[in-house]
């Protein structure tokens, strides 16, 4: 029993010394020393998969029926302003044009679009402009555009070097939603 008491006294003494032996003043930081030499440069990491940062996606531009003119002919054209389309984009990108017919349910087609009676085609793409033409396939007069539903257009420019996997993909065969999903873009 005496040995046990001596042992407990010794443990209490050691604990008291440990607790009271340290003070806040001990181990204060000294002045900051000089900057050391620059280390050896490391190896570059692996290149990651390309993203969609270089893809140009416009907002939808809506053309109300009056924007198409007064009608009477077999063709009507509009100009879609495309400020992001420059000479570099024209030379190095595939430019996809989409048409949204604004009725319920909303439908989106790639241009050119042809339903056998009417067709919408891209008449030309130049810096800052895309010309889209609507025409009747049989050459007869289009209905008066003031009776048309509103039609919206959007363009997507996909640079040829966006990813190596795009070389085998025909985006013109994909729906609007498939293209947006393919690149992880918002609808």
Describe what you observe in this structure:
The chain has 187 residues and is of the alpha+beta class. The chain has a domain at 56-175. The chain is 18% helix and 30% strand. It contains 3 helices and 9 strands; from the N terminus they run H-E-E-E-H-E-E-E-E-E-E-H. Strands 1, 2, 4, 5 and 9 form a 5-stranded antiparallel β-sheet that branches. It has a 4-stranded antiparallel β-sheet with strand order 3-8-7-6, with no helix packed on it. The radius of gyration is 35 Å and the shape is elongated. The mean pLDDT is 81.
Write the topology of this structure.
Blueprint (H helix, E strand, L loop, with lengths): L1 H20 L34 E2 L3 E3 L11 E8 L4 H6 E9 L5 E5 L1 E2 L3 E9 L1 E9 L14 E9 L16 H8 L4
Antiparallel strand pairs: 1-9, 2-9, 3-8, 4-5, 4-9, 6-7, 7-8
Keywords summarizing the entry:
single chain, 187 residues, alpha+beta, five-stranded antiparallel β-sheet, 3 helices
Global mean pLDDT? 81
What is the strand tally? 9
Largest sheet: 5 strands, antiparallel
Rg over CA atoms, rounded to whole Å, is: 35 Å
Class of secondary structure makeup: alpha+beta
Distance between the termini: 83 Å
Instruction: Give the strand content.
Output: 25-35%
What does this entry show, briefly?
The chain is an alpha+beta fold and 187 residues long. The protein contains three helices and nine strands, in the order αβββαββββββα. A hairpin with a 5-residue loop joins β4 (93-101) and β5 (107-111).
């Amino acid at each position: 029993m005496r040995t046990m008491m001596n042992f407990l006294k010794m443990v209490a003494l050691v604990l008291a010394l440990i607790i009271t032996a340290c003070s806040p003043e001990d181990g204060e930081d000294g002045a900051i020393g000089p900057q050391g030499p620059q280390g050896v440069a490391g190896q570059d990491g692996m290149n990651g998969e390309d993203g969609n940062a270089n893809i140009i996606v416009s907002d939808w531009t809506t053309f109300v029926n009056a924007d198409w003119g007064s009608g009477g002919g077999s063709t009507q054209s509009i100009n879609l302003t495309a400020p992001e389309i420059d000479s570099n984009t024209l030379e190095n990108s595939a430019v996809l044009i989409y048409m949204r017919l604004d009725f319920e349910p909303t439908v989106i087609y790639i241009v050119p679009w042809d339903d056998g009676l009417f067709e919408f085609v891209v008449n030309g793409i130049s810096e800052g402009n895309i010309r889209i033409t609507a025409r009747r396939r049989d050459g007869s007069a289009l209905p008066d555009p003031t009776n048309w539903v509103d039609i919206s257009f959007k363009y997507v420019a996909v640079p040829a070097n966006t990813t190596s996997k795009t070389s085998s993909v025909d985006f013109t065969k994909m729906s609007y939603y498939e293209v947006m999903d393919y690149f992880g873009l918002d609808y």
